[in-house]
Fold:
Amino acid sequence: MQDRKEFVPGTMGDRIAYLRKRKKLTQAQLAEQLGISAQAVSKWESGVSQTKRY
Structure:
C-alpha cells in the first residue's frame, strides 16, 4: 500500500490555516481547543507571531 502524501502549503502560518480549514474550524474554535486566544491563532496564520519551538 502506498502512502499518500498530502500537499501542505509552505509557511507555518499557511499550514495552520490550511489544516484548520480542512477540519472546518474557525480561528476561535481552534483557539478554544488549544487554550489560547483567537488573536494568537490569527497572528500565527498571518505570520505576525511565530509558534514556540520546543
User: Anything to note?
Assistant: DSSP finds three helices and no strands in the chain. The mean pLDDT is 86.
